[in-house]
Amino acid sequence: MNEKVLALGQKCLRLVTSDKSTLSFLGGRPLVGGQFDWPRKNNKPLGFIGQLDLKEINLEKEIDWLPQIGRLLFFYDLEEWPWGFDPEDKGGWAVLYENGSSELYQHVLPSDLDQEHLSPIIKYIESESFISFPDGQSVDFESLGISEGQEYYDFLEEHFGDEPRHQVGGFPSPVQGDSMEVDCQLASGGVYCGNSDGYNSEDAEKLRSELLDWKLLLQFDSDDEVEAMWGDMGMLYFWVRESDARNCDFSNPWLILQCS
Questions:
Q1: Could you give the CA distance from residue 117 to residue 240 in angstroms, rounded to a whole number?
Q2: What distance in Å separates the CA atoms of residue 213 and residue 242, rounded to the nearest whole number?
Q3: What pLDDT, on the 0 to 100 scale, is given for residue 218?
Q4: Distance from C-alpha of 169 to C-alpha of 9, rounded to nearest angstrom
Q5: Cα 41 from Cα 113, distance rounded (Å)
Q6: How many Å apart are CA 60 and CA 168, to the nearest integer?
């Protein structure tokens, strides 16, 4: 691929299977150093889907907006499956920043947590430096000297390979639309994004004019190894404002679910 295309690349961390037990994993149960309130919506506990140990996965500080230590715990409503285009979806997911002692233990599970919403399978993961590229929907092929868009998509497929596209930072790999940063901005700001009316509203125009600093916190691909299937071969995309993440504040993430 030519230099113009390669120049589009953005640094990220790819999450791959580890051959040893790590503090970063998908599925399983939270491994923590302190107590916390299990996140709920409508008084029902969310499902735990994985955690990342920041010192472990970001050892070289390649994602400079993440804290250097601590653990991120990810939760999702595995009953309602919120998509993230409706402001009412808020609370259907959660990211907890846990920075307890170095002596870790498995967190006591809520007594009313449906065991179907807790994967018995655990996939230990580690990170590797990776370069992400924007989806073809956001690329001007002519300016890059590419005659056909398929050439670019073939490049992306070869670049990512066949492994699940679990990722921290960088450009997402959208299954549908490539406007997730805007969707996060609008939906988290109270604008319904399920149809064109919301996008064309005065509230949407105002929100677009504000700081758009959403960053991809975790891209969780469908993965047979942990029996995770997000819709029809879809992905969960957890987003956070960079300004919040730099302050170790993960209390207001937004999530987008996309599937084919």
A1: 24
A2: 6
A3: 98
A4: 12
A5: 12
A6: 14
Q: Distance (Å, rounded) from C-alpha 198 to C-alpha 190?
A: 10
Whether the predicted model's global pTM rises above the 0.90 cut: yes
For the stretch 116-166, pLDDT in tens is 778 889 999 999 999 999 999 988 988 888 877 888 899 999 999 999 999
Letter string b/e over residues 116-132, b meaning 16 or more CB atoms within 10 A of that residue's CB: ebbbeebbbbbbeebeb
